[in-house]
Design brief:
single chain, seven-stranded mixed beta sheet, 0% helix, 59% strand, elongated
Length: 121
């Protein structure tokens, strides 16, 4: 099992910044990817940003140039620095990790509990 602890959400005015963090713990052998998704009211969950263990990154077009996803492998922690926030960024943000528990083992997908980000106009 993997435990994910998220922090950093809150209320901010448009144009402001927030930083989310998500720490993973458990008997993890390797982390294949770490990233963030979000879900606004009445909408489907969508990818925000993801980083793979191979160093590849993928960002939603709507956040490119404003959000930066980074990870600290020593701490099994992923961050999301959000700048120039817009009201349309308002959503619950979920951390996501894909891990394996043994060499050549299957990958398992885990979600954080979600943290609310609200951007006022």
């Amino acid at each position: 099992q993997v435990q994910l602890v998220e922090s950093g959400g809150g209320l901010v005015q448009a144009g402001g910044s927030l930083r989310l963090s998500c720490a993973a713990s458990g008997r993890i052998f390797s982390i294949d990817s770490m990233g963030w998704y979000r879900q606004a009211p009445g909408k489907q969950r969508e990818l925000v940003a993801v980083l793979t263990s191979g160093g590849r990154s993928n960002y939603a077009d709507s956040v490119k140039g404003r959000f930066t996803c980074s990870r600290d492998n020593a701490k099994n922690t992923v961050y999301l620095q959000m700048n120039s926030l817009k009201p349309e960024d308002t959503a619950v943000y979920y951390c996501n990790v894909v891990v394996t528990f043994r060499i050549l083992g299957p990958a398992s997908n885990y979600w954080g509990q979600g943290t609310q980000v609200t951007v006022s106009s």
